[in-house]
Every structure is written in C-alpha cells, then in structure tokens.
Amino acid sequence: MVTVAELVQSVARRLEDVGITEGRLEARLLLGEAADWTLEKIVAERDTPLESGVVARVERLAARRLAREPMSHVLGWREFWSLRFKVTSDVLTPRPDSETLVEAVMRALPDRAAKLRLLDLGVGSGCLLLSLLHELPQASGVGIDRSARALVVARQNARALDLAGRAELRAGDWGDGIEEVFDIVVSNPPYVPSDDIETLDPEVSEHEPWLALDGGADGLDCYRRLAGQLGYLVRPGGIVALEVGKGQAAVVARLIRAAGFIDVSTHNDLAGIPRAILARRSSPG
Predict the structure, then answer these.
(1) What is the pLDDT of residues 241-250, one digit of tens each?
(2) Domain 77-281 has what CATH class?
(3) Which of 14, 99, 110, 245 could share a disulfide with 191, CB 3.0–4.6 Å?
(4) Distance (Å, rounded) from C-alpha 132 to C-alpha 58?
(5) How much is the pTM?
(6) What number is the average pLDDT over the span 119-132?
(7) Half-sphere exposure of 149 (CA within 13 A, CB side)
(8) Where does the pLDDT of residue 1 fall: very low under 50, low under 70, confident under 90, or very high at 90 and above?
(9) In the chain, which segments carry CATH 3.40.50.150?
(10) Cα Rg for the chain, rounded, in angstroms?
(11) What tens digit of pLDDT does each residue of 180-191 get?
C-alpha cells in the first residue's frame, strides 16, 4: 500500500512537471479533499498507508489539476478573508489580491457597528460583499451581476455564511436602474485587456469566465462606465473602492477624481502592486 508521503511526493512531482509551482502544497490539499483530512493530519500521518479508494480519489482529482483546471474548481472552494467560498467555472476565483480592497474599506470606516448600506457591482462569488458584511454586523447590502449562474453561486455562499438575510443578490448591468444611494460601493470589474486574455495562465484563460475578465481594448472600459454612475450611487461622504489591474491605478484614480470624488488613495497588495483605489464622494458645500 502507498503511504501518505509517497502519494504526496508522486502527485507533487507530476504537478511540478507541468509547471505548477506549489506542487507539494497542492498535492496535500488534494489528499485532504479526498480523505477529508486536515493538512496537519497529513503531515503527522506521513508514514500511514492509504486505502486504495482514497488513492483513487486523489488520482482523479490530480488528473483534473494536471490538465490545468484551477485548484479552486477541483476542490470546489477557495478561502478568502478567512472564509470559505464555493467556486465554480461561473465565477472568478477569489484571489488574495482582492483582500487589499476589503482591508482598505475596513480601515476607512470610523464605526464598524453602523447600519451601513453596501453595493457590490459585479458581485461574482460574493467574496467582497459577503466578507464586508461578515465584518460589519449591522450592515446590509446589494450585489449585482449580469450572470444568472454567478448569482446562484453568490446566493449559495451567502446562505453558507449565514448572511443571506443581509445580502440581496440580483441581476443587473452595473448601476443601471438602481435608485438607492449607498454608504459603500465596491467593485472588482473586468480589467484584463481583451487581447491579453489568451496569454494568461490556462487556469484563467481556459477555465474562468471571460465576462469577468474582459475589460475591453485597454482594460478600462468598465471603469469608464462606473465613473459615470458612481456619482448617483454613492451618498455624499460615502466610500467607493475599486480593484485595479497592474499599471491601471493612476488612470482609474483620475477617472474617479473627475467624477467628483475626493481623498483618493491607492492601496498596494502583498506584492507591492497598486491594487485598490479608495475615494470619498464630496459633500455639498
């Protein structure tokens, strides 16, 4: 019988051979999913023989990952802001970079117990809206997405996190038809230039929804549209926070300033790349 260590080594080597850099970690995650074991148990039980059924399940999962299907799709979930989110091919996989936006919003709030209203445009899996609602116990919010299938995933995540009562998730096209004004508006819009999508890793270009990736010729189409809508979606004194792609922060900041927002700030991700723009809508007078 193959042991835990032997199986992890075998799977890790094959993953690394196809260009997956964190082969050992991913091998352990696959074993954890197949055996319902924690990573700690996998390390502690490295010499334990595995049942053939577990080995077979790991191999089936590994075959999908070797075909460069995203790990989040193989496992069916991704951790974000210390919360577990269901992930399918209908939504963008939540990424650590996006936690920069959540952190920036939280730092900007003087009273986290306030009864705030949030809006997430392009809600996808719900990771931004639901993470913020998890941190803001009196807040409620609306999530908008063009994709009906993405909304199914977001609703499942809201229920799993016990936030469905505070999150309204509905179909829409950015801010069109929304008459309410909000205290906080967030968005991670598509920002990859159209011609660049096919050059991305196959996990992204072949498996994630292009609707959530394609930002037009220069990657900025959605920001231009949002800039024309935010003025009537954010209350005076309210906050807008937008995720941006590499090299886009300065242009997006100018768009936001031109839309009447002040106190515009840029927030870097863990790699030091400007990843989020935060601003306040100016108040009358």
Answers:
(1) 999 999 999 9
(2) alpha beta
(3) 245
(4) 35
(5) 0.92
(6) 98
(7) 10
(8) confident
(9) 77-281
(10) 21
(11) 999 999 999 999
- The mean predicted confidence, pLDDT, of the chain is 95
pLDDT for 285 equals 59
Given a cut of 70, whether residue 87 has pLDDT beyond it is yes
Between CA 102 and CA 19 the distance in angstroms is: 31
Confidence of residue 256 (pLDDT cuts 50, 70, 90): very high
| CATH 1.10.8 residue ranges for the chain | 4-67
What value does the mean pLDDT take over residues 36-49? 93
Decide: 150 and 91 in contact? Cβ < 8 Å.
yes
3-state secondary structure the chain: CCEHHHHHHHHHHHHHHCCCCCHHHHHHHHHHHHHCCCHHHHHHCCCCECCHHHHHHHHHHHHHHHCCCCHHHHHCEEEECCEEEECCCCCCCCCHHHHHHHHHHHHHCCCCCCCCEEEEECCCCCHHHHHHHHHCCCCEEEEEECCHHHHHHHHHHHHHCCCHHHEEEEECCCCCCCCCCEEEEEECCCCECHHHHHHCCHHHHCCCCHHHCECCCCCCHHHHHHHCCHHHHEEEEEEEEEECCCCCHHHHHHHHHHCCEEEEEEEECCCCCEEEEEEEECCCC
Between the alpha carbon of residue 187 and those of residues 65, 119, 160, the distances in Å are 29, 8, 22
